[in-house]
Amino acid sequence: MPSPQPDEATGFFGGRDFAAVIFDMDGTLIDSTPAVNRSWTTWAIEYQLTREQMSGHHGVPAAAIVAELLPPDQHAAAVDRITELELADVDDVVPLPGAERAMIELADAPHAIATSCTMPLAQARLRASELLAPDVLVTADQVERGKPAPDPFLLAARQLGVDPTDCLVVEDAPQGLLGAKAAGCATLAVVTTNPREVLAADLVVDDLSAVAWQVVDGRIRVVPAESADRAE
Q1: What's the mean pLDDT in 158-174?
Q2: Are the C-beta atoms of residues 157 and 22 closer than 8 Å to each other?
Q3: Is there a catalytic annotation at residue 217?
Q4: pLDDT above 50 (res 1)
Q5: Can 26 be counted among the known catalytic residues?
Q6: How far is CA 85 from the centre of its chain?
Q7: Is 91 exposed, middle or buried (0-12, 13-18, 19+ CB in 10 A)?
Q8: What is the pLDDT of residue 230?
Q9: Catalytic residue among 24, 89, 151, 166
Q10: β-strands 111-114, 167-171: how paired?
């Protein structure tokens, strides 16, 4: 289904504004794909898992992936091992197009990151990317259920002091979008790691360079980047 077209005057979402924006991290704000692939490939080889077994897990916490693929007696060691591998490899981690602009334009507005990484890994990747990170960072080790459950987005909204139904979630993965919708949030998807046809969101764009962020009286509106550029 094609994405709705923005109105020149009101922008995307029919001019609706939001109390806060909650971003996924990997694949949405930063490109960690080379590092992720290296770490998980090494881990899969060590645990004798096939490429087919490893597919379809983007956006899912590492502990949930391990629980799905390995017997219970191996879970603790396997989680420790992938954590070790990922923390040791943050090479090539860079901001994705539009991410730096988003963090600058939203600097004085409520916004957060809700990621399937653990806190140490999220902090390591954000440092490596040199992206200006928001004060609120929700990670997989802070919630009982990770994506596709709504828990990360509900916690982020609570820490921001806003109603989740007044939030916009920005995601790149189907599992994350499921969690955002379960939390009652509006959704914006970027086509950075998954094809457009699998991203069931209110709005789908190629990446964050397609949008700009306007903050008026503490409320956030999403507009086409070219419209904002012309107005400057």
Answers
A1: 97
A2: yes
A3: no
A4: no
A5: yes
A6: 21
A7: exposed
A8: 54
A9: 24
A10: unpaired
pTM: 0.85
Active-site residue among 17, 26, 166, 202? 26
**Residue 166, Cα to own-chain centre: how many angstroms?**
18
* 109 residue type, one letter: A
- pLDDT of 126 > 50? The answer is yes
Both tokens assigned to 175: 């599992």
Percentage of residues in the chain having pLDDT higher than 90: 82
Confidence of residue 5 (pLDDT cuts 50, 70, 90): low
What residue type is 16 in one-letter code? Answer: R
Reduce the secondary structure of the chain to three states and give it as a string.
CCCCCCECCCECHHHCEECEEEECCECCCEECHHHHHHHHHHHHHHCCCCHHHHCCCCCCCHHHHHHHHCCHHHHHHHHHHHHHHHHHCCCCCEECCCHHHHHHHCCCCCEEEECCCCHHHHHHHHHHHCCCCCCEEECHHHCCCCCCCCHHHHHHHHHHCCCHHHEEEEECCHHHHHHHHHCCCEEEEECCCCCHHHCCCCEEECCHHHEEEEEECCEEEEEEHHHHHHHC
